[in-house]
Amino acid sequence: MPYKVFVAGEEALAADANSYLMSQTVPRFTNATQRTSQLTAPVLNQLSMRDDRPGVLERWNGTAWVNLANMFHSQVTAQVNITNASAASAQEIINPGSVAYDGAPVVLEFFAPAVSLPPQAGALLIVNLFDGASDLGYFGALGNPAAAQHIAPMFLRRVITPTVGNHNYKVAGWLGAGTGTGFFFAGAGAGAGAYGPIYLSATKVT
């Protein structure tokens, strides 16, 4: 879409307003349904925002609306307990749902403020990354060197290049060794002694 400089006294026609002004601003919509009904012919690289996704800027890539930079940021404030002992039965820690991607590489970032392993020497807590039902392998792990309780934060990052379309990246955990329960502590982060949230986010590589 070309950029037009209007001069003093020039007549601004409806076609000018639609082609230049409306297409080169960032319109705001309540949700995707309203956007589809009101913005029926978006142009390549046009931007928009939705009230149900505050802070997320979306771009029309020619066939779909995709997030411009921060693909998503999702968090949970409830503690997650891990007792299962296989990747096939890994227990979900955080699931942001399906998100549209345009094929550009993204950084997936996972954080848990405190993780506790079973108090056994050699206990191992493994975190796997999934795309829907597809296991993408180990995202990270914590091991216990002694028969005592150990608590540590967990911060993981991975660069991945998704295919164009929707993907549901999520994180699940399981016990690779030892028995008992592993804990992912989380909270709203409000007040003294309160844990902050567990989060998973994706950001485009720039």
What are the key terms here?
four-stranded mixed β-sheet, 8% helix, elongated, Jelly Rolls, 206 residues, mainly beta, 2 helices
User: Hey, roughly how much beta strand do the residues contain?
Assistant: 35-45%
The description of the largest β-sheet is: 6 strands, antiparallel
Count the DSSP helices: 2
As for the CATH topology of the largest domain, it is Jelly Rolls
Fraction of residues in H or I helices: under 10%
**CATH architecture verdict of the largest domain:** Sandwich
Description:
The chain is mainly β and 206 residues long. It folds into two domains: 14-68, no CATH class; 71-204, Jelly Rolls. 8% of the residues lie in helices and 45% in strands. Strands 5, 6, 9, 12, 15 and 16 form a six-stranded antiparallel β-sheet that branches. The protein has a four-stranded mixed β-sheet with strand order 1-2-3-4. β10 (124-131) and β11 (134-143) form a beta hairpin. The protein is elongated. The mean pLDDT is 88.
Detail the topology: elements first, then pairings:
Blueprint: H1 14-22, E1 28-29, H2 32-38, E2 47-50, E3 57-60, E4 65-67, E5 70-76, E6 80-82, E7 91-94, E8 99-101, E9 106-116, E10 124-131, E11 134-143, E12 151-160, E13 165-167, E14 169-177, E15 182-185, E16 198-204
Parallel strand pairs: 1-2
Antiparallel strand pairs: 2-3, 3-4, 5-16, 6-15, 7-14, 8-13, 9-12, 9-15, 9-16, 10-11, 10-14
